[in-house]
Fold this sequence. Notes:
Blueprint: H1 5-24, H2 39-52, H3 62-77, H4 79-87, H5 93-100, H6 105-122, H7 125-152, H8 176-191, H9 196-215, H10 221-242, E1 246-248, E2 254-256, E3 258-268, E4 273-281
Antiparallel strand pairs: 1-2, 3-4
Amino acid sequence: MRRNISSRCLFGMIGFILATTVALHAQTPAPTPSLEREFFKNILSDQKAIWTAPFHLERSDMKWVVPAGVGFMALVTTDRITGDEIFEADRQVKASQGISYAGSIYGLGAVAGTFYLIGRKKNDYRARETGVLSAEAMINSIIVEGALKGITQRARPLDGRERSEFFDGGSSFPSGHSTQAWAVATVIAHEYKDRPAVQIAAYGIASAVSVARFTGHKHYLSDVLAGSALGFGIGKFVYHAHHREIVKDDDDGEIVKSRWPLITPQYSRQARQYGVALTWNF
């Protein structure tokens, strides 16, 4: 039985508004001493900020939220039509499934792990931070999109007569692959904003994953759009919340800029002096 169209649009807006407000209100708190040590603590603080983002909307945000919301609602109402049209084409399904792997937990986990291991091995802090923040963004996106799937329960395109309906026990909204791919891609693109080729590659792969979820008959266009926007917002927030600036010292070594002092013990056995030293890098 089909649900009322206004109800479907209303609940479909949940993920879209959440993504928009997360992106608009990304703030930068004071960095923590160690990203690895504070990894899970940061995820908890991220979740609090993400879920409360809609409550921090300001009047000036309406000029973006309202037009985007209207456009998204229009897309939801045409999902069944566009979904049925793409369903008639099946030559691209196999290729779409292969591309989708890049947005899976395994594919993105490998990307984050590679950045981190290379950073550790080559003492490259930027690569190391990219790995940590990519993993953090991916986990945040999995939590958020998983919760939204449970709330909306939208039927997938292959779910028969109830396809595209909300609250039918489905898991179509939003697209998890799109959310995760865009979250990781956004972190990478922000970390390497001085390298256009890296940005193009990151966003290009994320876009390909999103399109593949539609052409592979796994999601509707609104699922993909909401997932992409949500992932972008989460990735942007994670980067701005936990990124640390890197400067070069006189020996061309990397120094992490931080508002927190570096505490090191001082000990002189001959002078019998003991103490600590506080060092800030601004």
